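Work Package 3 (structural annotation) set out to generate three-dimensional models for the target panel prioritized at the project kickoff. During this period the team completed the workflow that converts sequence records into discrete structure tokens, so that structures can be stored uniformly alongside our sequence database. As a representative example, we reproduce one entry of 126 residues exactly as it appears in the project archive.
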Amino acid sequence: QVQLVESGGGLVQAGGSLRLSCAASGRLFSSYAMGWFRQAPGKERDFVAAISWSGGSTYYADSVKGRFTISRDNAKNTVYLQMNSLKPEDTAVYYCAADRLRAPFAKESPSEYDYWGQGTQVTVSS
């Protein structure tokens, strides 16, 4: 069992930056692939980014490619999402998720992830 807790959300102006963190409990964190998703009001939960268990491979949704960076620190049981050049359409609740299967890691469907955090709100004003 893994518990995930997101933090770092907030209100930022368009063009600004935020860094989200997801702290995980449990000894097996370093063996899980991790992902970030987001959900805007009235919309489905969308894939944002994924990272392999080692951190050596990453994968991004086209909408955030070049602006967001996913990373992880297995010694700290934490995964990060650095968000730059934020746009109003990035406004959503952001969730981190853990996948018990190491491979393949670049999964875009929420149903393929086993554990979820409670989410953190990101609001980008224009």
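The mean pLDDT is 95.
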